[in-house]
Amino acid sequence: MGAYVARRLFFSIFVLWGAVSVIFLVLRLVPGDPALILLGPDANPSQIAALRERMGLDEPMLVQYAIYMRDVVQLDFGTSFRFGTDAMQHVLDHVPNSAQLALTSVGLALVIGFPLGIIAALKANSVVDRIISVFSLATQSLPNFWVGIVFILVFARGLQILPSYGQGTWQHLVLPSITLALPFLAILVRLTRSGLLEVIHEGYVQTARAKGLRERVVIFPHALRNALIPVVTVIGLQFGALLGGAVIVETVFAWPGVGRVLIESISHRDYGVVQAAILLIAAIFVFTNLVVDLLYGYLDPRVRLAG
Amino acid sequence: MSTPTPPDEDAPLLSVRDLRVEFGTRAGVVTAVDGVSFDVRPGETLAILGESGSGKSVTSQAIMGILPKPAGRVVGGRIVYRGADLLTRPPAEVRKLRGTEMSMVFQDPLSSLNPVFRVGYQIGEMFRRHRGYSRSEAREAAIELMERVGIPAARQRVDDFPHQFSGGMRQRIMIAIALALDPTLLIADEPTTALDVTVQAQVMKLLTRLQREEGMAMILITHDLGVVASSADRVLMMYAGRVVETGDIREVYEYASHPYTKGLMASIPELDGRSDRLTPIKGSPPDLLDLPPGCSFHPRCPYARDVCVQDDPDLLHVESRPGTHRAACHFREEVLTDDRERV
């Protein structure tokens, strides 16, 4: 187990290296000069050249990459062109906001998604099941940004009961967290439903009934513990989608999180901040997947985590 | 003044009367069990014999009240246990009988045990849920039971998971669960079929030993004629959802009066080499969706005549034999006396 975790952590270094290298390359391939953007359209060429030199952008790309990598291994993730402060610190300052939004969304999705999935499975092919299935199919198909805009139109502009942007009170959290939770919730409902339906005819569920256990005990824990195994796996994979969704939702609702920092930094070609944000998001993703895999081993004792 | 009648020694523990079970399938509704009746008396072993699809497992699921839902449902008959019809009692009441009064051992112990729970938990659950034991009490009781069903080093293995045991040991754990609360009736649905041949005899011996010790009745469902011969008192032959022959085990084996029973007996290989060729029953098991008219067995029957196509025979006394021997064949006396192997 310890050896397994160590090996996974070792390999995740390469994953992070790959992620940050790709974003380094892409940032420099897309058009747009950070010095030009920073100085504005009225700047003269010599000013721009001077700034480029100060930013280190006059060097060949390979040299820039080597310098960046040298700094990164020393945990120096560069400086923000815009603010002149430490890039990673700028990103980390916004992590609590993102965590608040993401955890609320995941919590909402779990608290609503599991029960709906269980109800749908236990009442399979009934009217209730159909309603739940249509609801989850719809919410899974609707794009985040569209749902967010509709929410703003209905609840903020129309009914005027909730704020449309920014952060502060719990009311500010309602619309963005629901918007972010919906697709995740939909997947959770469908997975729980199919997972439970798959195991409900297994021999051990029949055994649980033959043991004279209450139907409630037959479902939880006997059937559900088994049904959750595939659900947990997919939750891990879906976490990436949730992080991507957060970028969009934070932008729509002007939520001051990492996602919004990322978008703003990209439009300003603030290379250091973009790279730091991507590195952090990739690290969270890798870590979450490791946790999910460990959880998988706990949920299914037949799985042995080989070091 | 009437004196109260003394408890009848021979009063059946379980009476199944005219049981009918239907299954909804994609292709249509199948009558898996069609008018089956039998009794089980305290302490005795009744073997239900038949090939796949004969309705023997469905019969046992119906008795236990664990038919796969919503596909399977009882559409007629009575299942009377100790005077109470299980089909009309409230489900909560019937549930409390399961595991305490009547228990079941299934065919495949690997799929019947929950893969994500420790075996000690699965055994101990019987004591915790039905008897209100604490976790530690239930654990001790589980260890004791594991020792009783012959699992070596029970104390060390109580926290293992099912996949860490061999097939035979898993079935012993299944038996431990079934016998935990000293049931009066055990239903064993092909308890040895999924096991290695070498282990089969051990598990069967364990079952019969425990049955004797507990004095419980057993319904043994199998297609293994050898298992039946060594451990059953009475036998019920099933074919296409109906009982075709029933009686005491020796009686039915030696004086088979239904062509299907007779065919099965003839298909057993004999080690002493009296017959050097196996005699299979010709044809294949019937399609329950499209049963032949009249007697379901007639397309495969060497004795079949016109009447068999038109008229489904009732399960009737074989007149020249003792009263408990009954067969569902128009020509049961002829089959009984016919020495030729006409299969």
From TrEMBL, chain A:
Q: Which SUPFAM superfamilies match?
A: MetI-like (SSF161098)
For this UniProt entry, what's an example GO CC term?
plasma membrane
What family is it from?
A: Belongs to the binding-protein-dependent transport system permease family. OppBC subfamily.
Fill in the subunit field for this protein. Answer: The complex is composed of two ATP-binding proteins (NikD and NikE), two transmembrane proteins (NikB and NikC) and a solute-binding protein (NikA).
Please state where this protein is localized: Cell membrane
Q: Which NCBIfam families does this UniProt record tie to the protein?
A: Opp2B
The lineage's top-level taxon is Bacteria
Entry keyword set: Cell membrane, Ion transport, Membrane, Nickel, Nickel transport, Transmembrane, Transmembrane helix, Transport
Residue spans making up a coiled coil are none
Q: What does the record give under GO molecular function?
A: dipeptide transmembrane transporter activity; nickel cation transmembrane transporter activity
Name the PANTHER family for this protein: DIPEPTIDE TRANSPORT SYSTEM PERMEASE PROTEIN DPPB-RELATED (PTHR43163)
Indicate the segments forming the ABC transmembrane type-1 domain, all copies: 95-292
* Protein name, per record: Nickel import system permease protein NikB
Q: What is its main location?
A: membrane
Keyword presence, Ion transport:
yes
Topology with respect to the bilayer: Multi-pass membrane protein
Q: Which residues cross the membrane?
A: 9-30, 101-122, 134-156, 168-189, 227-253, 273-299
TrEMBL record, chain B:
In the record, biological process GO terms are:
peptide transport
Subcellular location, principal: membrane
SUPFAM superfamilies documented for this protein: P-loop containing nucleoside triphosphate hydrolases (SSF52540)
Per the record, what is one GO cellular component?
plasma membrane
GO molecular function term, any single one: ATP binding
What CDD domains is this protein classified in?
ABC_NikE_OppD_transporters
What PROSITE patterns does the database record attribute to this sequence? ABC_TRANSPORTER_1, ABC_TRANSPORTER_2
The ABC transporter domain covers: 16-265
Q: Could you tell me the membrane topology recorded for this protein?
A: Peripheral membrane protein
Q: Which UniProt keywords are present, listed alphabetically?
A: ATP-binding, Cell membrane, Membrane, Nucleotide-binding, Transport
> InterPro entries per the record?
AAA+_ATPase, ABC_Ni/Peptide_Import, ABC_transporter-like_ATP-bd, ABC_transporter-like_CS, Oligopep_ABC_C, P-loop_NTPase
Q: Where in the cell is it found?
A: Cell membrane
> Which branch of life, at top level?
Bacteria
PANTHER family noted in UniProt: DIPEPTIDE TRANSPORT ATP-BINDING PROTEIN DPPD, OLIGOPEPTIDE TRANSPORT ATP-BINDING PROTEIN APPD
The record's family statement is:
Belongs to the ABC transporter superfamily.
What protein name is recorded for this chain? ABC transporter ATP-binding protein
Look up and give the organism this protein is from.
Phytoactinopolyspora alkaliphila
